[in-house]
Design brief:
Layout: H1 2-8, H2 14-45, H3 53-61, H4 68-102, H5 114-127, H6 134-157, H7 165-189, H8 191-202, H9 210-228, H10 231-237, H11 241-246, H12 251-273, H13 279-291, H14 295-319, H15 328-344
Helix pairs in contact: 2-4, 2-14, 3-4, 4-9, 4-12, 4-13, 4-14, 5-6, 5-7, 5-8, 5-12, 6-7, 6-9, 6-12, 7-8, 9-12, 10-14, 13-14, 13-15, 14-15
């Protein structure tokens, strides 16, 4: 009996251990949701003008249009909170996918040229077509991200062995450098375009209405569903292509599926809030320290905690420079850089 169990599956003692681990991770995910709820509450209540928590609550349950504090919540803070939730979740998922896809612990949404493609498309939209609205940025940013990712995949597929992780990373770096050069050339030759673009380039949640979020929402929703379904694929790809084929998975199709999810998530999020850094880079590493290398848990954790971090960074930007504010893209860089350096020094990065 004992030899039969060993040959056909894990020993009986492994099942209770898995259940205990699953229970701990499920409890941790519930705690992460509480953290996200607190971040949302802080985003609605804290700013240049602080709003009492009971007023925030009444805004939801008993909205009074004549109340100035409630107007601040509904007209200014609610839209930027929604944008922060969407952009943070999307960038967190995109970063997790890219790190798992390339097996590169330093991968971020800029590695495969997605940010550079979105930026270049937005610059062309402003300078050539005269687009001035964030609604227009969403569509052009999404298209630019998709075309850049496709170009990176084509360049990385040249030669033998197809699109390996190393070749994709090198192709992404080359395409990003080229697109950034073109972007700078357009900006330096057109001061009007530069004035409009620089506010978007810093990365901000302010000034984006719910209509813009609604435009990006369908792309982000489809990308998020695809990303959450990619956990088992990423786990198998992490074993290597030969092992993945042995387990019945087509590595090429899996990479195309994950890359399409990255384009949907990162392209729309970047166009929505600008090229925000470090969210998709540091959060997956921090999550992995608790969940381990299983992407089936990393993805939902990152989807919850990445927007929480982005909203907290946005609140800090409003508080430290009252009555003005610091753009969230600058705050995420200040917070993320030392955290990322600390994470890089840990040996657990080698487990990717």
């Amino acid at each position: 009996m004992s030899s039969t169990r060993t040959a056909t599956g894990p020993p009986p003692a492994a099942a209770p251990a898995r259940r205990r681990r699953g229970g701990a991770l499920g409890g941790g995910l519930a705690l992460a949701l509480v953290v996200l709820a607190l971040a949302v509450l802080a985003s609605l209540a804290i700013g240049a003008k602080s709003v009492p928590l009971d007023t925030v609550w009444n805004t939801v349950l008993h909205h009074d249009p004549s109340d100035d504090d409630q107007t601040v919540v509904t007209s200014l803070r609610l839209p930027r909170t929604v944008v922060g939730l969407l952009a943070g979740a999307a960038l967190g998922l995109a970063g997790t996918l890219m790190q798992g896809l390339t097996r590169n612990p330093l991968a971020d949404p800029g590695l495969l040229g997605v940010n550079a493609g979105a930026s270049f498309a937005v610059v062309l939209a402003i300078g050539v077509l005269g687009v001035t609205t964030f609604t227009g940025y969403v569509w052009f940013g999404f298209a630019g991200a998709a075309l850049a990712a496709l170009l990176v995949h084509l360049v990385g597929s040249f030669g033998g062995q197809g699109a390996t992780p190393v070749k994709l990373a090198l192709a992404g770096a080359a395409v990003s450098a080229g697109l950034m050069s073109f972007t700078r050339a357009v900006l330096l030759s057109d001061t009007k375009t530069f004035d409009q673009f620089r506010f978007w380039e810093v990365g901000s949640l302010a000034g984006r209405g719910l209509g813009v979020a609604a435009q990006a929402g369908p792309f982000l929703a489809v990308g998020a569903v695809c990303a959450l379904l990619s956990g088992r694929m990423l786990n198998t790809l992490g074993l290597g292509d030969e092992a993945a084929r042995g387990l019945g998975q087509n590595p090429a199709l899996a990479r195309v599926f994950c890359s399409a999810s990255v384009v949907l998530l990162c392209g729309a999020a970047t166009a929505l809030a600008g090229p925000l850094g470090f969210i998709g880079l540091t959060v997956p590493h921090a999550v992995r320290a608790f969940t381990g290398p299983d992407h089936r848990w990393i993805l939902p954790y990152t989807m919850v905690l990445a927007p929480a971090l982005l909203l907290v960074a946005d609140v800090l930007g409003r508080v430290v420079a009252r009555p003005g504010e610091i753009e969230v893209g600058i705050v995420t860089a200040v917070i993320g850089a030392p955290v990322f350096i600390a994470l890089v020094r840990k040996s657990r990065l080698a487990e990717l």
